[in-house]
Amino acid sequence: MIPGANLLNAAFGMIAAQGFEYQPYQARTINAVGLYETTYGPRVTLPGSIQAVARSVYQEYGLDLQKNYATIFVSRDVLDLTRDTSGDRVFWNGRTYQIISQTDWFNIDGWVSFLAVDTGPELAP
Q1: CA–CA distance from 83 to each of 34, 87, 102, 115, 116 (Å)?
Q2: I want to staple 47 with a disulfide (CB 3.0 to 4.6 A). Which of 17, 18, 56, 80 is the partner?
């Protein structure tokens, strides 16, 4: 492969990708009673790979043992959790996942992997 080639898309040519819904973060504003409200853009279906994070690495990664996490690979730039943003969300297998951190290969090779935490059952859009 050459530098800048999208290795993830090349891999999806040989292995099946999983489909899931992705919802981009739009804004965080303060409502009339002084609480923050997050708004998201419309959901889109993306191909990618979703892998459960093994519990044997939770301590090494500093993860909460009471939660479930997934590593997701996708050919799209995503927004993770920061001080002033809630980050994007993923919906898969009836569950909602909040993107909490990413490895940014998008600007180099056109894909990212990110860590997402299961925040509960998927609610109606």
Answers
A1: 18, 10, 15, 17, 16
A2: 17
Two tokens at 49?
A: 């790979």
pLDDT at residue 10 greater than cutoff 80: no
The CATH classification of domain 7-121, taken from the options 3.40.190.10, 2.60.120.590, 3.40.640.10, 2.40.10.270 = 2.40.10.270
Helix (H) or strand (E) segment spanning residue 97: strand 95-104
pLDDT digits (tens, 9 = 90+) for 78-121: 777 776 677 899 999 999 999 888 676 555 666 778 889 999 99
Distance CA 25, CA 108 (A): 23
Does the pLDDT at position 35 exceed 70? yes
**Predicted model pTM:** 0.78
One-letter identity of residue 108: I
Ranges of each domain in the chain: 7-121
Over 70: is that where the pLDDT of 31 sits? yes
- What residue ranges in 11-79 does DSSP mark as E strands? 18-23, 25-30, 36-40, 44-52, 69-74
What element of type H or E holds 60? helix 58-61
